[in-house]
Amino acid sequence: MTAEVMAANDTHWDPALSKLIASLKEAESLSNDQEIDFLQTLLESKELNALVNVHSKVAKVGKDDRLAPILSTSGMIMCEVLEQLSQQCHLNEDCREAFHLLQKPHLHSLLYAHDAIAQKDFYPHLPDLPIEMDEDEETIKIVQLVKSNEPLGATIKTDEESGKIIIARIMHGGAADRSGLIHVGDEVIEVNGINVEGKTPGDVLSILQNSEGTITFKLVPSDGRGAQRESKVRVRAHFDYNPEVDPYIPCKEAGLAFQRGDILHIVSQDDSYWWQARRESERTARAGLIPSRALQERRIIHERTQREIGDGESKKGSCTSICSTPPGSPRLRSSSSTSSCRQPKTKKIMYDLTENDDFDRELIATYEEVAKLYPRPGIYRPVVLIGAPGVGRNELRRRLIARDPEKYRSPVPYTTRPMRTGEVAGREYIFVSREKMEADIEAGKFIEHGEYKGHLYGTSAESVKSIVNAGCVCLLSPHYQAIKALRTVQLKPFLIHIKPPEFDELKKTRTDSRAKSTFDESNARGFTDEEFTDMIKSSVRIDFLYGHFFDEEILNADLVTAFEKLVNIVQRVETEPLWAPSSWVQ
């Protein structure tokens, strides 16, 4: 009886397997190791349980007195008995009948099976090597795989030197990988009896596509084959990818589509240009091909170069030319905080980026290696709300502080402007001289700073650290250009992008709530259509430049709904392990 047939029956779990599964579940609660997940799936399979049950029954031979064999040579004894009976057949009818019964093939098979079990001869015997064998003769292996809706999980290519078809890569978790019989570098001789000599990889693919049922490969094993060991690297994707529209991928069917923000498990980086990966949420799925970091960076650089060439051919210096250029183009890196052509009238933000050693590399957003960052009791990650001016991030921050003022706090900003009537030093602002603040800015003591109507404003790094060390949740709502200065291993912030809805909904919700414009402090008025448009454009620009840095997004259409989502997110940050840059964990 085969394992498949036995697995179909209702059998009880073997005690040893049950104990192992329970131990693995305990280990899984402490670790998210991929190998533990694989072992648990294997141990819970019906096929393995059926085989273990068979093994357990056979292993009882010799241990249970009721099943212990009296002898292990019943076949030889049968032959001796037949020899004795043959001499008595003509004298006795019973001897003749016994002689004929003992020659039945079924009885022979039964006795031989008995002897094999009694002798514990359970393992297959390989034939001896021929005495005369050509040392130069190639070893051929024949592999059969059952074709299903699942891809075979292997790609092929033509060897540049020999012109032969060879296995280019094995996709982790695919049918070829699970078989353990096909390896990178194996030479393909035949597919379903069809010789592939002189054929192209496309020809071989056509043979496979037209095959049904079992597919038989005749292969010459590679010299340096070895088991593929999965990498434990996890990355957050910083761009969208669709293999169906990628003209350079070796095999579109083997590609893995993903979106920006997805956590990917990189299982193999053996190929310089094409990594193998699977989504972290699909741990048992077959791995797929994705562009490597080096390949994706080259693509982005090429696209930017082509865009710059196109921009150079257009009319330079005009307002229309600048606005039509995609946000984040290299020649617009030093532009103002909005994407409109109008220059800000009264506000100018300045940021120091010298602390970012990998600034140039991060401009090319590809992948970021991540790991689970576990909450630390009494030490909370700062929560940073980023959004376009007027989107409502400051109102959300104020509401969260009002919900629990002892737990949620914001640092008091510094300023060089004179104190106004009714203000208290250290409550609304910390008032310092311009000379002092400029010296502290030069010393890198501010995570953000800017100038407004001739006065400096800023948030010091020390004030943020003091809130964190006091066991409180530090809430920040800085200008979006402060992201790179904030996103450090020392602060480990959780970044949330507060986004506006579409124009019509944005205008309706702000008008219904009688929201006051934040663009004009001197007049208490509502937002204009132009300000709504600027808000949406600025949000798009923020998403383009820094979207890959955000841990969460909140659409602020309805303030009550947005606040509820913010509360839920902050509670998760305080209690759950979340993905963060691996350097923060190490």
Automatic annotation (TrEMBL):
It comes from Musca domestica (House fly). This is MAGUK p55 subfamily member 7 isoform X1. Residues 142-223 form the PDZ domain. It holds the Pfam family L27. CDD domains: GMPK, PDZ_MPP3-MPP4-MPP7-like, SH3_MPP. PROSITE patterns: GUANYLATE_KINASE_1, GUANYLATE_KINASE_2, L27, PDZ, SH3. InterPro entries: GK/Ca_channel_bsu (IPR008145), Guanylate_kin-like_dom (IPR008144), Guanylate_kinase_CS (IPR020590), L27_C (IPR014775), L27_dom (IPR004172), L27_dom_sf (IPR036892), MAGUK (IPR050716), P-loop_NTPase (IPR027417). Belongs to the MAGUK family. Keywords: SH3 domain. Residues 324-340 have a biased composition (Low complexity). Residues 380-571 form the Guanylate kinase-like domain.
